Amino acid sequence: MSLLPILRYPDLRLKTLAAPIDEIDDDIRNLARDMAETMYGAPGIGLAATQVDIHKRLIVVDASETRDQLLVLINPELIESEGSRFGEEGCLSVPGIYDKIERAERVVVDYLDLDGNRRRIEAGGMLSVCLQHEMEHLDGKIFVEYLSALKQKRIRSKLLKQARITA
Ligand code: K2U
Ligand code: ZN
What we know:
Layout: H1 26-41, E1 46-48, E2 58-61, E3 71-82, E4 85-89, E5 99-103, E6 106-112, E7 118-123, H2 125-138, H3 149-166
The structure holds ligand K2U and zinc ion.
């Protein structure tokens, strides 16, 4: 088990398009385990492999109050989305930054579980937001990209300054 380093915006590796997973082997199972440990330790309610510089289509999510309902989604696909809601979001790759983002209210997502079974999840609420947020990471997109160019500029300079101080 190990905690994985999380890439920080504006690291260009966060813009990488993740590749589909063809074989669910021990490497993938170990990665899912380490991503889950990293997510719980952050703490967060989701984490995409992109954020730990592994460019494969794998996300882990646990939006439960009890923090004991881990979902591992391999090759997740957005099948349906409906409605619209504005909610404040953060991101483990953009520490200390929170802003309101519009998302679909409900989503239907198909994916493979760690046993290779095809599954379908219908989600609303925070789980729906988290799934949309994580699946965008796999496409190299970060929530700050929905914000104005000025806000993005300010966030970029703040995080670059933070990185210089902590380097
Ligand atoms: O991708 C990530 O960085 C994980 C996010 C997922 C997320 C962002 C916005 C809204 C829902 C989920 C982190 O979990 S951000 C930290 C956090 C923690 C608890 C609740 C919401 C956000
Ligand atoms: Zn994020």
